[in-house]
Amino acid sequence: MTTFTQVTVVGTGALGAQIAFQIANHGIPVCAWDVDDQAVAAAQARLQSILTQYLADVGDDHRKAAEEAVARITFTTDLTSSVRDADLVIEAVPEKLELKQKIYNHLGEAAPDNTVFATNSSTLLPSQLADATGRPERFLALHFANHIWQQNTAEIMGSPRTDPAVYDNVVTFASEIGMIPIPVRKEQPGYVLNSLLVPFLNAAAALVLRGVAEPETIDTTWRTGTGAPMGPFEIFDIVGLRTAYAISSTSHDAGAQLLAEYLKTNFLDKGKFGAESGEGFYTYP
């Protein structure tokens, strides 16, 4: 028996769908919500791509269990019914404060009183959302990295009002679904991983924006010089260029605004979103 036995994932984008699969792949039923039928259809197709990638990584011997995991995920566009039986809700909607607050206002009224809420937000602090939930003591951040079954960190960050027992339960749950829990003891924009990663990616982007070197050259330099498996622009593609744009476009930093415009003009406006769409800085099968 796991700490939480019925989980709802709110938002089924590139990472939300991975979160749903990871949890279901550890025997837990998942209800996945998105805004309309088109978004749900896209999520179902995304889930099949995740299944293909997962099996390519772990081997076809795991096919039966992985297919059973996919079958354990149900989809809905009804936000109220999606959380009716949930004891844990993981929110993974776009990084817009007002949107998340609106979602949490609804969730707070619809979910049972004992339900724990967790945001997967990369950029917002739990304190910015806690009041909207109506249950700040049962709310915290649970942040996953992309390619979740391999880059299996789960960063847990509460607000000053988070109940320590709730925090500990979420840490335990992270282990139960195959993650390495990363306890973050104080609210920190970017948690641990992104506090290290974002300056690295920004340094790489600055080299391109100033015309110093091409993305491929920068990636080759980093891989060769450090032995790292990926360069920064390969990481950009894995993270997703829409995510990179969302983060940079909301920053007041002039360099971040230049990066946002570069990504929009050269990639997003052309339907190139990174690995999820098959093309970004690189082309993917």
Walk me through this protein's architecture.
- By secondary structure, the protein is an alpha/beta fold.
- It has 12 helices and 8 strands.
- An 8-stranded mixed beta sheet has the order 3-2-1-4-5-6-7-8, with helices on both faces.
- Helix 6 (126-133) links the parallel strand 5 and strand 6 (139-144).
- Helix 1 (14-24) crosses helix 3.
Features:
single chain; 285 residues; Rossmann fold; N-(1-d-carboxylethyl)-l-norvaline Dehydrogenase, domain 2; eight-stranded mixed beta sheet; 49% helix; globular
Strand content: 5-15%
Order of helices and strands: EHEHHEHEHEHEEHEHHHHH
User: CATH topology of the largest domain, what is it called?
Assistant: Rossmann fold
The portion of residues assigned to helices is 40-55%
| Main sheet overview | 8 strands, mixed
Q: Supply the CATH class of the largest domain.
A: Alpha Beta
Q: What's the end-to-end separation, in Å?
A: 39 Å
How many helical elements? 12
The coarse overall form would be globular
As laid out across the biggest beta sheet, the strand order is 3-2-1-4-5-6-7-8
Radius of gyration: 19 Å
Name the CATH architecture of the largest domain: 3-Layer(aba) Sandwich
Structurally, the number of domains stands at 2
CATH superfamily of the largest domain: NAD(P)-binding Rossmann-like Domain
- Derived from helix and strand composition plus strand pairing, the structural class reads alpha/beta
